[in-house]
Amino acid sequence: MVHLDRDYLEAVPALIGGREWVLVTSTGWASRGAIKAITGAAGAPVAVVGDVPENPTISYVEKLTSVKPADLVVALGGGSVMDAAKGLTALQALGGDIPRFEAHLRDGEPLPENLRPPPLICVPTTSGTGSEVTRWATIWGDEKVKFSLTDPRLYPSDAVLDPSLCLSKPRELTLSGGLDALSHAMEAVWNNNHTPESDRLATTAIGSIRRHLSAALERPDDIEARREMQVAATIAGFAMGTTQTALAHSISYPFTALFGMPHGLACSFTLPAVAEYNMAEDESRFGAIAEGLGCEIADIPAVLSAWFDEMKLGTAVGHYISAADIDGLGENLITRARAANNLRAVDGATAKDIAKRSLGDLSGSGAGSGAETAKAAS
User: Which of 128, 155, 211, 226 could pair with 177 as two cysteines, CB 3.0-4.6 Å apart?
Assistant: First the structure.
């Protein structure tokens, strides 16, 4: 169940209802006093996982087998925290069976029929991933390969949307999160698994992001913009939860794994070019996107590019990669499972061309010097 516009310090204790619970969060939220605040409101958990890193790895998640089991798990944080919490619930339901867990991640082996993970309450503090309403979690291999944990029994039982938790987000995280949600919605449309319902959800999410993301960037303390972006991200999560993602996400993973580019930037800077590429296959499928953006179908790539320029996406992306970086990837920009969902078939060479052209089309990309600066600082 999604609980809209709720004070998490009131909603979460009510949902826990006196049961034993585990708190999963990040060092950032721990340093802001969130652990003290939520435990003061809900009572002491049986365990606290307070060090979830960005893009959690298999080795990190497997260490969570030492966490004492409880009746339920509460995840307070962004997508990485929610993904780690799903990994924790799956491992607890597996009784700590790490080989079975890895067989699922690495080989796609289904989780056992008798899997009974504890309920998961998600309190998202970013507006992008939609993980609070999906059955998936991204777990990275220590070799920088992306794996998916997926099972219908991993759907969170509750999502508590408290927009006040998003007020502290810096500009890049606001931009990355908003564009992650936009990518989820758009990828749900040019997807072989789309449905009329997922298209309607995508239109709603795209329209709200178009109206409110710039306001959240310009006025970080605008609680109404934060509220609308949080809801839009959840709606986009519902759309993507039906379809999974497609080409833009397939292209994105090496940029996050190898260059540290935030996922939302990596999966969105190619959207204009991916839209144009897919429109050549079936332009009629793009009505849901055009309606959300408030433009004609033929104008979608240009409208996206102009909007991205206004938000200075090129500068943000250019901090992480250059054209030379893309050349160095060869044709390794295809994740088959994601590309298979795409409306139009694609190969590695085409994906590379899309990425390189997209970087070049971004105004003020800062490619080259900025990319080197970011990698030196990471």
Answer: 128
